[in-house]
Amino acid sequence: MKKITISITAISLFLFSCSNTFNEKSKQKTETVTQEEHQHNDEMQTIELNNGEKWKVDANMITHIRNTENDIISFSTIEQKDHKSLVEKLQSNIDLLTSNCTIKGKAHDELHKWLLPYIDLVKEPSEAKDETEAAKEFEIIQTSFTTFNQYFQ
Prior knowledge:
By secondary structure, the protein is mainly α. The chain has one domain. Helix 1 packs across helix 2, helix 4 runs antiparallel to helix 5 and helix 5 runs antiparallel to helix 6. The chain starts with a helix and ends with a helix.
């Protein structure tokens, strides 16, 4: 239940930070999207390319994504793994990314298909029961960035 509440909160925060208007119609739409994401949060939606090309992510957003990717690469090379510390760094970058959301249209929608599952993944290593489970969760996060780089630039 705690996981669901955190996921819904993160999704809502991201959706609201990407919008400049908060009228009743957009609020209803956000609630519908949040409910749909909640119901399908274990299934990753298929990301589409932009007519066969990678989607361009705005410069102010890609900076935070690349910082996150660099943190993940650095973490993979160290021997003494502190997953809690990594999760804090990743969450900080998520917060910066979502607060600087300026991407619009179809690119925005496609980015959400990657970002929303990624936000859920970030919490997993700190909730792991042991180091082996945390390491597996970290590998899934690494794979998520492989997916990101296939569809976005």
